[in-house]
Amino acid sequence: MNSEDGHSDRRKSPRVQAGFRVKYSTLDQLVLAYTKNISKGGLFIATERLLPVNSVVRLIISLPSDGGEIPCIARVVRAMGPDEDNPHRKHGLALEFLDVSAGSIEHIEEFMSSAATKEAEASMLPTFDYRLSILVVDDEKIYRENAAKILREQGHDVTTAEDGLKGLAACLRNPPDIVLTDVNMPLMDGWNFLRTIRARPSLSSTLVVFQTTLNSEKERLKGYQLGVDDYLAKPYSAEELMLRIERLFQRTSVGSRDLSKKALRGDLEQVSLPTVLSMLELEQKTGVVIIVGPHLCRLYVRHGRPMSIEMDGIKGKTPIALVVELFRWTKGQFEFAPQDIHAADELQLSMQGLLMEAARLTDEEDR
Questions:
Q1: Residue 38: which of 88, 91, 111, 90 has the closest Cα?
Q2: Which domain holds residue 36?
Q3: Which helix (H) or strand (E) holds 148?
Q4: Over the stretch 90-138, which tens digit does the pLDDT of each residue have?
Q5: Are both 52 and 23 inside the same structural domain?
Q6: The domain that contains 39 carries what CATH number?
Q7: Which of 186, 204, 222, 311 has the maximum number of C-beta atoms within 10 A of its C-beta?
Q8: Is the pLDDT of residue 6 over 80?
Q9: Are residues 246 and 284 in the same domain?
Q10: What is the residue-wise DSSP string for 94-129?
Q11: Which of 120, 123, 135, 128 is nearest to 246 (CA)?
Q12: 225 with 265: CB under 8 angstroms?
């Protein structure tokens, strides 16, 4: 905040002895001044121009970010000059408002509330300190152009294609960091587009997000099996799109992925863990399921049969109790990594038997 001396028009207002303009450059400055002084009917002005007590001044309060101006008349209730005992004390005038209307105070309050809301909403959006190459593939022009506009405004390099075949050509010409693609498209749909990308070593590091209306776990699991990295349900907001890109970028280091191991990975909000485990049993998979949720959990599977479970930070619980705890998680990421498993069979159940037992124990606990 700073104040500027102005010139009073003594012919029109003979009582006014000086004029000041007080400028607040930030919302924080205005909030502090409001709570300390303005709301109590006054204001302190830092100035070397001291006036006698009871002097009348014309005052203009300028709100930040073109929030407007509040004119008023005030009188000096205290003049603070040099103080030998306190050389760091600010020189200035303590003013008492004489004619500030209730409407003016309401205007200041409404401005602060609105500005604070806008700042809070802006702070919730991710701020990118990196520049990504992103390809948006969608046969619906409105979705294609809307997503491209949002991402370009964040500083990313964005290209677009109207079907999977043209999207593949764009990838082959200039491999992007991320592909945001629809599923139901002409010529080459999202499924075949994803399969083709994953079959090419030059595109193995490319992150792929399905933007789709698919809502069945079977379809979403199919996408994860083919190598999709995330889902974005249509319609979506600008905030959701940016947050998904941010989360995906943080979760996976662009350019350093090794898909040769063909690990199955996904999000528990998109596919439930029982669905994933049922698929592992059906396909007789051997490896470890890593789940990152409230804790880090590892579930060891041999030929589709659960063998043992570990959960970091949890002590003293039986293996089946850990499974019950795990199945309560609805948010987090999972990844299945194929590898040899030498763990002993601590659970003594088939995968379907484990799912049924965990469901039974959960029902008993919830009663």
A1: 111
A2: 2-124
A3: helix 141-153
A4: 788 899 998 887 788 888 888 888 887 776 655 544 555 568 899 999 9
A5: yes
A6: 2.40.10.220
A7: 311
A8: no
A9: no
A10: EEEESS--HHHHHHHHHHHHHHHHHHHHHHHS---S
A11: 128
A12: no
